[in-house]
Amino acid sequence: MDTELTSLTPFEMIIPVEQEHIDQLNHVGNLIYVKWIQEAAINHWMTCAEPHLTETIAFVIARHEIDYKYSAKLGDTVVVKTWVGKTRKHLFERYTTIYRQSDSRVFVEALSLWCPIDLKTYRPIRPTEELISNWSVE
Q1: pLDDT at 3
Q2: Is the dihedral angle over the CA atoms 84, 72, 101, 39 positive or is it negative?
Q3: How many degrees, rounded to 5, is the angle at CA 81 between CA 96 and CA 35?
Q4: Which residues pair with 14 in a beta bridge?
Q5: Beta-carbon contacts of residue 132 (< 8 Å; ≥ 6 apart)
Q6: How high is the pLDDT of residue 13?
Q7: Sign of CA dihedral 133, 4, 65, 117
Q8: How far apart are CA 80 and CA 41, in angstroms?
């Protein structure tokens, strides 16, 4: 990416589609897309969050809305692009688009709601102002 990566800028992962991603229908399976959505969100958090946050807070998925638009195939290289949305009380919106790198053909568009949890108790927490201001847009 050309701009400095922050919590409010999109985060991207580039993934070559390999045989392990292919299902019995000869394309990337739905569970693989969900895995990539989760990995991109976690990597964004671990890359951009302050250490005092990553040491005390994790996010778990509360809800996914996924639109499967086209199928990735063996040999494709995909870009998993994720960015934060608004905060809904204690849930944080996160958007993800997965597309082919060569021609930007969109395979998946998703909206996920993530809940912050305390890493000591594994219970949901009330988001602090710092968390909201750094990990959501108004």
Answers
A1: 54
A2: positive
A3: 65
A4: 79
A5: 87
A6: 98
A7: negative
A8: 10
Q: Helix, strand, or coil here: 19?
A: helix
**Element holding 68 (H helix, E strand):** strand 57-68
Burial class for 82, CB neighbours closer than 10 Å (0-12, 13-18, 19+): buried
Instruction: Quick: pLDDT tens for 85-113.
Output: 999 889 999 999 999 999 999 999 999 99
φ/ψ of residue 36, rounded to 5: -65, -40
Whole-angstrom Cα Rg for the chain: 16
Residue type for position 3: T
Tokens describing residue 125 = 């927490």
> How many Å from the N-terminal Cα to the C-terminal Cα in the chain?
24
What pTM was computed for the model?
0.93
- Give the helix ranges, DSSP H, for the chain: 30-48, 51-54, 129-135
pLDDT in tens, 44-80: 999 999 999 999 999 999 999 999 999 999 999 999 9
Instruction: Set out the domains of the chain in order of their start, with CATH numbers.
Output: 11-135 (3.10.129.10)
